[in-house]
Structures are given as C-alpha cells and as structure tokens.
Amino acid sequence: MPKLQSKSNTKINTGLRPEHDLYPTPKSCTEELLQREKFVGRIWECACGLGDISEVFLDQGHTVLSTDIIDHGYENISAVADFLKCRYSDSIPRNIVTNPPFKYANQFIKHGIELTKPHNGKLALFLRLNMLEGQKRYYEIYKPNPPARIWIFSARQTLWREKQEAPKGRSGTTAYAWFIWEGGTAEGDTRMKFIEP
Ligand SMILES: C[S@@+](CC[C@H](N)C(=O)[O-])C[C@H]1O[C@@H](n2cnc3c(N)ncnc32)[C@H](O)[C@@H]1O
Known about the structure:
- By secondary structure, this protein is α/β, with parallel strands linked by helices.
- It has four helices and eight strands, in the order αβαβββαβαβββ.
- An eight-stranded mixed β-sheet has the order 3-2-1-4-5-7-6-8, sandwiched between helices.
- It is globular and about 40 Å long.
C-alpha cells in the first residue's frame, strides 16, 4: 500500500539568487529618496525589473526611460539592454537611478559614473551599506569618485525575490543606503545622512 503523503509548505532556502538578481525595491525606499534629492530632467532606470523604482518616479511626474537586460514583464519597459554595454548618447537621460544586481554592483557604479559625470548628471544607486567597504573598491571607485551624499536607512530593509510578497510584520534583514554621485565631489567631502526609521 502506498504511503500517504501530505504536501509540506516549508520553503528551503537554497542560497541561490534568482536569475538576473530580480529583487524589487520597496516603493517606500524610492519615496524616501525623492523626499531628499531633486532630479532635474529625465531619469534612466537602467535595470528596471518590474518597474518598482520607475513607477514611483512616474507617479511624481518625472519622465522615465526604463530598460533591463531581460523583459520581466514591466508594462512601461522601453527597451531590453545590457546597461554595462550601453554608451552615452544625447538621447539618453543624464540622471540614472537604479538598484543594480548585487553581483555587478561595482560595474554598475563605475559605468554609471562614466555615463553621468561628464554630462552633469546625477547617479543614485540603492546599495547595501557594506558596499562602502573594501580596499579595491576604495581605490577604484571611492577615491577617484567620492559620492556626494549617502542616505542611510536607519531601519533595515528586506527585498523579496521576484514577485513574492513580503510577509507582514517581518523586520528588515539588510542595511541599505542611497549612494548619490553628482558633480565632482572632492575627497573628504562626502556627506553622510540618516533616513529616520
Ligand atoms: C535587484 S533587481 C532591481 C530591479 C529594479 N531596479 C528595482 O529596484 O525594483 C536587479 C535588476 O537588474 C537587472 N539586470 C541584471 N544585469 C543587468 C544588466 N547587465 N543590464 C541591465 N539590467 C540588468 C535584472 O534583470 C534585475 O531586474
């Protein structure tokens, strides 16, 4: 006689990240950014995922170009494009805002600076706070291009994979901040600010 089995709802954490690192940014995190930073001109969300950042900018009246390396089904995506291979052109917005894929965060920072700095644009990246660390990163990124401001979320944030809903009442797991590059900030002039919980 076959054994009776019941389906378990237990989810095993495999430690694997979803393909292309799709972790949508909570809308509140982008709203906090927009309460503190002014953006003049069009915005490029260059790794738009499901459009969570783009939609907050659109809701506040901005014009947004949304692209991603794959089409995740966001209705307002303009093009499928590998950001790291994109070159500057006059038709591309001078302001770049995104939450980049974790494993390419360094490349996104460097390429984002290359595309915004010479054109007086602004780069705003939602990054883990521990992206501040690292000798290689210091010499390659922060020493030649210190951020203008770092907006630290005092409350930890949790980003849920793909289209999953965050369980109610769960507290955050990771320290995040908005890193802002704008103009030529001199070494030692980076301003660190807190976002109240
Ligand atoms: C952490 S998710 C963030 C999605 C969205 N920016 C947000 O904040 O909700 C990272 C996104 O980067 C995209 N991505 C990964 N590599 C990319 C690349 N080279 N160029 C453009 N997008 C890329 C993934 O498809 C995914 O949508």
